[in-house]
Design brief:
CATH class: Alpha Beta
CATH superfamily: Phosphoenolpyruvate-binding domains
Number of strands: 8
Helix content: 40-55%
Number of domains: 1
Radius of gyration: 18 Å
Order of helices and strands: EHEHEHEHHEHHEHHEHEH
CATH architecture: Alpha-Beta Barrel
Length: about 260
């Protein structure tokens, strides 16, 4: 899956499988993940402490591996969203989207006229420094067609608004932020609580009803497989830190066990 084909798979039941990058924004990361079979990477700016200079370099590392990269921005602020797109991200993941109004604001920050009001920049990183490319309306249409919008459902209000949000043209994925959702529902870490399950099922159903994708971060491959069976089609197998730790811990245990 390359950047041109990323959005073409929205709403299909075929699993789209990737991982998060929280720590190792290093030159080889895009090629390493792509060679492992990842179809996308999420570069996390919300919890990692990565600034935009680091994110800008990491986008180039992903491009070197021809791996689509989604940036999870630090907030819903316009400048965070638009800047992530300007440095070349193929899409953004926006945290804590709790209403239709917030979803519309995020969508408009990503998209160019007429779908949005993102400030115009052409021929720079978001265009891979390409010269030319047609008229401004043509370039707007090209950008709007390929940019992925992932909105996180992380509280009960977001789940209640999921159907209206999923109906928006241009919203592609509703991503259940499971930890924050469980906290917002008053049951931290209890993902079997009836209120959590109801919110999750409501979000997945909204995606299916409107031809959009449902996403979630899994702790490991086995959990990711259960998510796919439950209706998620955009899944992340853990993140770079967890994957390295788990592989090393397993290896050490095997060696010590003889």
């Amino acid at each position: 899956m390359d950047r041109a084909g990323l959005r073409a798979h929205v709403g299909t039941t075929t699993p789209k499988i990737g991982t998060f990058v929280f720590e190792f924004a290093t030159p080889g990361i895009g090629q390493i993940l792509k060679s492992a079979g990842a179809q996308f990477a999420v570069l996390d700016m919300e919890h990692s402490g990565f600034g935009f200079d680091t994110a800008r370099a990491a986008v180039k590392f992903m491009q070197a591996g021809d791996l689509p990269v989604i940036i999870r921005v630090p907030s819903k602020a316009y400048d965070h969203i638009a800047r992530a797109m300007d440095i070349g991200a193929d899409g953004v993941m926006v945290p804590m989207v709790s209403s239709l109004e917030q979803a519309i604001a995020a969508l408009k920050a990503v998209k160019y006229f007429p779908q949005g009001h993102r400030g115009v920049a052409t021929g720079l990183a978001n265009d891979r420094f390409r010269r030319g490319g047609g008229t401004l309306p043509e370039r707007f249409a090209e950008h709007n067609a390929r940019t992925l919008v992932v909105l996180q459902v992380e509280d009960g209000a977001g789940a209640d608004a999921a159907d209206d949000i999923a109906a928006l043209d241009g919203v592609d994925v509703l991503w259940v932020g499971h930890n924050d959702l469980s906290v917002a529902l008053g049951k931290p870490g209890d993902f079997t609580d009836p209120a959590f399950v109801a919110a999750e099922e409501k979000t997945i159903a909204a995606c299916r009803r409107h031809g959009k994708s449902a996403g979630r971060l899994a702790r490991d491959a086995a959990e990711a497989a259960t998510f796919v069976r439950r209706g998620y089609d955009w899944v992340s197998i853990a993140g770079d830190v967890n994957l390295l730790q788990a592989a090393l811990a397993d290896g050490i245990a095997r060696v010590r066990g003889g």
